[in-house]
Design a protein that fits this description.
- With 635 residues, this protein is α+β, with helices and mostly antiparallel strands.
- It has 26 helices and 22 strands.
- Strands 10-22-21-20-11-18-19 form a seven-stranded mixed beta sheet, with helices on both faces. A six-stranded antiparallel beta sheet has the order 12-17-16-15-14-13, sandwiched between helices. Strands 3-9-4-7 form a four-stranded antiparallel beta sheet, with no helix packed on it.
- The relative contact order is 0.11.
């Protein structure tokens, strides 16, 4: 029973693809039967190919015709194919039935490709919903009880243990912990929070247990607002899609009206006989069908997608390859995008009588017992040094950590905390520390007994290729490059200066980033957003082109974005823009060729210099020509 279920599920998920494959198979078998002279079998197989391959196009075309009173290319293709088949039966030129089936097959394949591109929205919303836990641990009469988040009420008290996700927004009633909010606010360092401070759903609790009071309905939490923003942004049709829809409808109207006129007026105007008139009218429907015009775009974009994939650039659909070539402004998230997203030791400055290794070995002796991200960064920096673990280690939340090693007290922490234990803070080190803090670095002081040994600066590291990428984008003519971050202004400005970005928006929540993208779109129309976290999802969805980091990016960012940099290589953004511009050039060339062929065939048909087989050959030949032209992007 398992295999039939899998087959049923596969056909349901890939219905358009299955229809196109069956249409192609029946077309081939029908052609083979005609070739052998088995007309009865051919007349069974070919109509089946028409029905299976053209059902969806016919349904959409008729729905548009009856409900919206509009004609579109779907219906025009079906009419052209049926006209070719009817003429083939009338004149007993059965190869024309094959030509009509080929037209339907081309459109069926195109429909299947579009179907895959449209599945992205549902997947992204499902991934976003999975980021919050389904249940919360509520305190009821002093006992913990698990209930669904949807049943939480304002005023409920919930317990969140170390390592768990916060289930809903709330205020801390008791406890102290560090919370990793990078996915929500974009802050690179985990934030220390205690009684009276607000916590957000979807953030990760650190080492402390928290008791939280729900102060707003679960559906009003920050993560739920992110979900709604993604839904809203992704349902807004881009201008290019609206233009294509309008073009198809107008083109179909012109061809149908022209076909009707061509089928009725020539006997009265030029004295044609009715057989010639109908023959040329049907030939007109075939040669005027926009297959070559439609093939001018999709093969080019698919080739560009394949080219990008080989270079570690994943385009989720062809429209985004086209749009990236038109980008005039780019917004970068900071944490995890322009930076690595992992805090590291940036610099060690020692007092005159000590070395940098002395400072690190002393700090790591106590920090090795800490679970704090800063402690882990110091341990990582001192991994190649020989050091002794301290005893009687005690951490003071939000201030620092103390311990004893080699019968001497060691103090590591912020300036105010360390100053309680030492004689004084050296003025030179104080000036250096203030300068580092102005650059957005976190400064940790290290003392041995009553003497200050030095300071350690902790920072999120800028990606090595970030500055070169920004420079390359400017040379490509990108008019505006900005940084969006939830971090403080000082940190943001220091990173922006390092990579060459002049315009910075700091301390932003997800909806703030969305607003900035909308303002940029008003000024520059086509705007790209590069990000990696949950907090970037609404902006990625709203942007004309959303670009996500493939390795460091969250699942939501990867699902919401239109383009994914699989190896987190920022320099590939410039490659993607170049690829997009090449695709635009080739598409324009193909459109000129396609329209040129259609015009040539239409004139030849009107003058009586071509018959239907030649018209089909010219029509299909132009389609093949522009398809091969599009494949140039594979190089």
């Amino acid at each position: 029973m398992l295999y039939p279920q899998r087959f049923t599920q596969f056909t349901k998920e890939h219905a358009d693809t299955v229809a196109a494959l069956l249409c192609g198979l029946l077309l081939f078998l029908g052609w083979f039967a005609l070739h052998l002279g088995w007309l009865g079998l051919a007349f069974l197989l070919l109509p089946a190919a028409y029905v299976i391959g053209g059902y969806e196009s016919a349904r959409e075309g008729l729905t548009t015709l009856f409900k919206e009173k509009e004609l579109d290319v779907d219906l025009l293709m079906i009419v052209a194919a049926i006209g070719a088949a009817s003429l083939g039966l009338w004149r007993r030129e059965y190869h024309l039935i094959i030509d009509g089936a080929i037209l339907i097959l081309i459109f069926a394949i195109s429909g299947a490709l579009e179907g895959y591109a449209m599945q992205r929205t549902e997947r992204s919303i499902r991934s976003l919903m999975s980021l919050t836990p389904d249940i919360a641990r509520v305190l009821l009469q002093g006992r913990e009880e698990e209930i669904p988040i949807s049943q939480l009420k304002v005023g409920d008290e919930i317990v969140v243990k170390p390592g768990e996700l916060i289930p809903t927004d709330g205020i801390i009633l008791s406890g102290y912990s560090t919370l990793n909010q990078a996915a929500i606010t974009g802050e690179s360092l985990p934030i220390e929070k205690t009684v009276g401070e607000e916590v957000f759903a979807g953030t990760l609790n650190g080492y402390g247990a928290l008791q939280i009071k729900v102060h707003k309905p679960a559906q009003s939490s920050l993560i739920q607002r992110v979900i709604r923003l993604v839904e809203q942004a992704q349902t807004e049709a881009p201008p290019s899609q609206e233009f294509i829809d309008r073009f198809e409808k107008r083109y179909a109207k012109v061809i149908v009206v022209a076909g009707i006129l061509l089928a009725t007026l020539p006997p009265f105007l030029w004295g044609w006989d009715w057989e010639t008139t109908i023959y040329r009218a049907l030939t007109f429907l075939v040669v005027a069908s926009p297959c070559a015009l439609m093939a001018a775009i999709m093969p080019t974009l698919l080739s560009g997608i394949a080219n990008g994939a080989r270079q570690g650039i994943l385009f989720k659909n062809g429209a985004q390859l086209e749009k990236i070539g038109k980008v005039r402004a780019i917004a970068f998230d900071k944490t995890g995008t322009l930076t690595t997203g992992q805090v590291q030791v940036f610099q060690v400055i020692s007092a005159s009588e000590y070395t940098q290794d002395d400072v690190l070995k002393t700090a790591v002796s106590v920090e090795s017992s800490s679970e704090h991200p800063i402690g882990k960064a110091i341990v990582q920096a001192a991994r190649d040094l020989n050091w002794v673990s301290a005893i009687q280690v005690q951490a003071i939340p939000g201030q620092g950590i103390v311990g004893i090693a080699q019968e001497q007290q060691i103090i590591v922490g912020n300036a105010v905390f360390v100053q309680q234990y030492v004689i004084n803070l050296p003025e030179k080190l104080r000036e250096i520390a203030q300068s580092l803090e102005l650059e957005g670095k976190t400064v940790v002081w290290v003392a041995w007994g009553v003497e200050v040994m030095g300071v350690i600066a902790i920072a999120d590291q800028v990606r090595s290729q970030a500055a070169a990428t920004i420079s390359r984008l400017k040379k490509l003519g990108v008019e505006q490059i900005v940084m969006l971050t939830g971090d403080n202004q000082e940190t943001a400005q220091s990173i922006a200066k390092a990579v060459g970005i002049d315009r910075v928006y700091a301390q932003l929540l997800p909806e703030d980033k969305l607003d900035v993208i909308r303002r940029l779109q008003q000024q520059y129309q086509t705007v790209a957003m590069v990000g990696d976290g949950i907090n970037d999802a609404p902006a990625l969805a709203q942007a004309s082109v959303g670009i996500a980091m493939g390795i460091s990016g969250s699942d939501v960012a990867l699902e919401t974005a239109d383009i994914v940099l699989m190896a987190d290589r920022l320099e590939k953004i410039a490659v993607a823009i170049h690829l997009g511009r090449r695709s635009q050039l080739i598409v324009k060339q193909n459109i000129v060729v396609a329209l040129g062929f259609i015009l040539l065939l239409l004139v030849g048909n009107f003058l009586g210099n071509i018959n239907l087989p030649i018209g089909v050959i010219g029509h299909e030949g132009s389609t093949v020509l522009v398809t091969l032209s599009g494949l140039r992007l594979l190089k």
